[in-house]
Amino acid sequence: MSTKAKKIFLLLTIVVPFLAYCVIYYMPIIKNAPFRSDEFVSFQFKWGEGDKLVNTYDSATGDYQYLNQKDSLIKTNVKLRENDIIYLHNKANELGFWNFPDVISNAGTDINKSKALRYVMIFNYKRKTKKVVFVTDYSDIAKLRDVAKQMTVLLTQSINDAEDRYGKKK
């Protein structure tokens, strides 16, 4: 058997079946991923102290209301760009948002009566929704607290950047 025939034989008996196996095994996993960027619909972001979540943003409608430094409620409409939405989805994926518990708070904390700042993050997809409630006084797992805090900062920063862009266009 020549060297060229040996290489072809090796390719056909090892490499091709391995590639076929990878395609057959991983394609359904990728196809059925629960939180895919092409299925992203919208997100809602709410925050406030105790049971008063007066600060809200809805990416589907662009409705944004928040309390300013003078405790005046400001209502405006801020639309995020498509690349902002994709960026937020990718960052949520990178930070492991889909693996967060539904409620991130200390054991025994009544999230509706707690005076600590509370964030509610809801990502809506065509087939699923992921909702996470994060109370800022959480102290059990420092890494989870830091990642949840990073997610809230990303959402807030993206909304504020979009508001600044929108305000400059007026």
Name its key features.
alpha+beta; 2 domains; 7 strands; 7-stranded mixed β-sheet; 170 residues; Mago nashi protein
What coarse outline follows from CA principal-axis ratios?
Answer: elongated
Order of strands, widest sheet:
4-3-2-1-6-7-5
Number of domains in the coordinates?
2
CATH topology of the largest domain: Mago nashi protein
What is the count of helical runs?
A: 3
The total of beta strands comes to 7
Helix content: 40-55%
**N-C termini distance:** 76 Å
CATH architecture of the largest domain: 2-Layer Sandwich
CATH classification, class level of the largest domain: Alpha Beta
Question: Would you mind describing this structure in some detail?
Answer:
With 170 residues, the chain is of the alpha+beta class. The protein folds into two domains: 1-32; 37-169, 2-Layer Sandwich (Mago nashi protein), CATH 3.30.1560. Helices cover 42% and strands 25% of the residues. The protein has a seven-stranded mixed beta sheet with strand order 4-3-2-1-6-7-5, with helices on one face. Strand 3 (63-67) and strand 4 (73-77) form a beta hairpin. Helix 2 packs antiparallel against helix 3. The longest helix has 29 residues, at 3-31.
